[in-house]
Design a protein that fits this description.
Layout: H1 10-41, H2 48-51, H3 54-71, H4 81-97, H5 108-140, H6 143-173, H7 187-210, H8 216-235, H9 242-275, H10 290-316, H11 323-340, H12 351-376, H13 382-389, H14 391-410, H15 416-432
Length: 442
């Protein structure tokens, strides 16, 4: 008798992804503060994008390996969970080291080198901790509940982002210093990383204690059923190459989306420091000014607004009857949000575009994995494929980061122009959604 994956309670779906809340706090702190940290250490604005090449490069190496090895790993602790725990433990250690890059009496170059190495290990460990959550949904959730499971994961992801983004602002508000001597990371940023590290490890331990992965015999039975259904689909006229086709079609959309967000993470700080805080970005010491650090804190608030928009939109997405329409509409709205940013000089009005950008982020977290895991249902190598799929996230970031300085110079050195470019990229990505062959009702 063929065996199918059972429906899981909402509580179990939440438990599978709960640790993602802590992982995303770490990722949010990295995303919102890396440009600020390296600018504080002395990096030239035209070179900021180059510091962002390393994180996606490490992700492109690590996540396929995590997928490949975890596909073959069966322990009493689970299949994916051991990788989750090791990644989280290393991330906690590095989160305590990275913000101290300027405190070790290094030269400017040595401090940036230390920061870069720390960033490499931080992103490697975050990727190692993040990918198992996506794989566990693919392993444990049936096709009917998968969209709901990834929407829950998207919600928790954005809730974690919200916390990580506002930490520097909140710590500054309660009196922890948000400025420091030139080359030194402010205490408000340091304490944000320390507290984020503590929450990360606690959330991961919660998931480890409350999730029991299927054993090899159960997984083999589920795969046998899915393969039989896949064979029936092929015999009815489906394509054996459907999964690979969907993989590359979704990857095309991913290219434009992740390039756009790379430019948001890299250039939001400089853009709003210029337009909303009146910072003279041509001043070599602009990063040591109170106004620039205030802008850095406000970036966290804007990214938190984006996370709120994403959390709300994540609850709306499952109500769309057509997953591709939901995906495309979300990207168009986010693109319009990006295009508004360079033309708004009031820091409060910036809430509007960043709320809209959250719509695109929610879709990017949920829709690609819904489409791809449905196409891969029944594969024994779900983790390996999802690890390889991460390359569709990493490659566009690497390309965008490598070209960022050249494009910024060509556009006149105003960092807001890079956000306008990000908006155009998202709208192109929305157009590409309609080439995706979705033969299953996701």
């Amino acid at each position: 008798m063929l065996k199918t994956k059972p429906d899981l309670s909402t509580a179990k779906l939440w438990n599978i992804s709960f640790g993602f809340f802590g992982v995303q706090i770490a990722y949010a702190l990295q995303s919102a503060n890396i440009s600020r940290i390296f600018a504080t250490l002395g990096a030239d604005p035209h070179n900021l994008s180059y510091f962002w090449i390393l994180p996606p490069l490490m992700g492109m190496v690590v996540q396929p390996l995590v997928g490949l090895f975890s596909d073959k790993t069966w322990t009493r602790f689970g299949r994916r969970i051991p990788y989750l725990f090791v990644g989280a433990a290393v991330a906690v250690l590095v989160m305590c080291l990275l913000p101290n890059a300027g405190n070790l009496e290094f030269t400017v170059m040595s401090a940036m080198t230390f920061g870069l190495i720390s960033l490499m290990f931080l992103d490697t460990s975050i990727n190692m901790a993040m990918q198992p959550f996506k794989m566990m949904v693919g392993d444990m959730v049936n096709e009917k509940q998968k969209a709901k499971a990834y929407s829950i994961q998207s919600f928790l992801c954005n809730a974690g982002s919200l916390a990580g983004y506002v930490f520097p602002f909140l710590f500054a508000a309660i009196g922890i210093a948000s400025v420091a001597a030139p080359g030194i990371i402010p205490d408000s940023v340091k304490w944000s990383f320390y507290v984020g590290a503590a929450i990360l490890i606690l959330c991961v331990i919660y998931t480890m204690m409350n999730v029991k992965e299927y054993d090899p015999q159960q997984m083999a039975a589920f795969q046998e059923t899915a393969q039989a259904e896949s064979k029936a689909t092929v015999e009815a006229g489906g394509s054996k190459n459907q999964a690979l086709k969907v993989f590359f079609q979704v990857g095309l959309v991913q290219f434009f989306c992740w390039a756009a967000f790379m430019y948001m993470w890299t250039y939001t700080n400089g853009s709003i420091a210029d337009t909303a805080f009146g910072v003279d970005m041509s001043d070599p010491n602009h990063a040591a000014t109170q106004a620039y650090q205030d802008a850095g804190n406000w970036v966290g608030i804007l990214f938190a607004v984006q996370a709120i928009g994403s959390m709300i939109w994540a609850l709306v997405l499952p109500r769309f009857s057509n997953v591709k329409v939901a995906y495309a509409v979300s990207l168009v709205v986010g693109g319009l949000g990006f295009a508004m940013v360079p033309y708004i000089g009031d820091k409060w009005l910036l809430f509007v575009p960043y709320f809209l950008i959250g719509f695109a982020w929610a879709a990017m977290l949920a829709m690609p994995f819904t489409l791809v895991t449905n196409a891969l249902e029944g594969s024994k190598y779900m983790g390996t494929f999802l690890g390889l799929f991460n390359c569709t996230i990493c490659i566009p970031q690497i390309v965008a980061a490598a070209l960022g300085g050249v494009i910024l110079t060509a556009l006149g050195s105003f960092q807001g122009n890079m956000l306008l470019l990000a908006g155009i990229l998202l709208i192109v990505g929305a157009a590409c959604v309609f080439v995706i062959s979705d033969t299953k009702k996701a």
